[in-house]
Structures are given as structure tokens and as C-alpha cells.
Design a protein that fits this description.
By secondary structure, the chain is mainly α. Helices cover about 75% and strands about 0% of the residues. The protein is built from two helices and no strands. The radius of gyration is 14 Å and the shape is elongated. The two termini are about 25 Å apart. The mean pLDDT is about 85. Pfam families: Nucleos_tra2_N (PF01773). This is Concentrative nucleoside transporter, CNT family. Keywords: Membrane, Transmembrane, Transmembrane helix.
């Protein structure tokens, strides 16, 4: 359930950013997804691996 709350939170923040964007066509989905993947990787590294702790 915690993972679901996290995903919903990410989607809400992205939705708010999209709503307040002046030029929505300038948002590149690939860049957003790559940045999200990097963030998930860092979170996994810090929370699950001994090296990150």
C-alpha cells in the first residue's frame, strides 16, 4: 500500500506541474521518465542496499 501512495504522489506532482505549465508541448516525456528512473534508482540504492546506508 505504501508503494501505491508513492506512485499516486508522483502522479499528482507531475499533474500539478503539467497544469501550471505555460508551454505544455515543451515538456519532453522522455526526459521526465529518465529523471524519474534515476530518482527510483537512488531511492532503491539508499533504502535497500547496505552500500547506500
Amino acid at each position: 500500500m505504501n508503494i501505491l501512495w508513492g506512485v499516486i504522489g508522483i502522479l499528482v506532482i507531475l499533474g500539478i506541474a503539467l497544469l501550471f505549465s505555460v508551454n505544455r508541448r515543451a515538456i519532453k516525456l522522455r526526459t521526465v521518465l529518465i529523471a524519474l528512473a534515476i530518482q527510483i534508482f537512488f531511492a532503491f540504492t539508499v533504502l535497500k542496499w547496505e552500500t547506500g546506508r
